[in-house]
Design goal:
It is built from 9 helices and no strands. With about 160 residues, the protein is mainly alpha-helical. It folds into 2 domains: about 55 residues, no CATH class; about 90 residues.
Length: about 160
């Protein structure tokens, strides 16, 4: 329904009520924009956090990376993963899955594989990460690499699905 518009309205009213906007509030607003299909607004809120001097948490980063993933903004997604590392924020399966999806959507198979192996080394590469990396390899006509990634799924105890 329209709950997201009410949530965003409340978020916008916080300063006028003398209440600070927190990372948690930004995360909720970003998710509301994203779930309503307005990904650009989610990214805009992520940028606005910096102007408001609110320190972003992993949820804020993950939401922004996910918003970038559908627009194939792979470079921006990679930059945010690097920022998370630099700020000692935990990169999880959502972080890597979304960043790899951004690379997949832009047919950037090298970057997708690099992220996959990084996520796998950290123990957070899930089904979505592997499938997106396989798809990125396919889009780049890297069939042998796609097959090799598929073969890695069994030892990693990842169940393949239709890519």
């Amino acid at each position: 329904g329209m709950e997201w518009t009410r949530a965003l309205g409340l978020f916008e009213e916080l300063p006028s009520r003398g209440l600070p906007r927190t990372a948690l509030g930004y995360a909720a607003a970003m998710m509301a924009w994203e779930r309503s299909g307005h990904r650009a607004q989610a990214v805009s809120l992520f940028r606005e956090m910096r102007w408001d001097n609110v320190r972003a948490n992993a949820s804020n980063y993950n939401c922004a990376i996910d918003a970038y993933s559908t627009d194939a903004c792979w470079a921006e997604a990679l930059t945010l993963v690097q920022e998370m590392d630099a700020r000692w924020l935990h990169c999880d399966a959502i972080t890597f899955g979304s960043a790899i999806a951004a690379c997949e959507n832009a047919a950037r198979w090298q970057e997708a594989l690099s992220l996959l192996w990084d996520g796998a080394a950290r123990g957070v590469a899930g089904n979505t990460s592997y499938n997106s990396a396989i798809s990125a390899c396919g889009k780049g006509s890297q069939w042998e690499l796609a097959s090799a990634v598929f073969e890695e799924m069994a030892p990693a105890q990842i169940a393949p699905d239709a890519v």
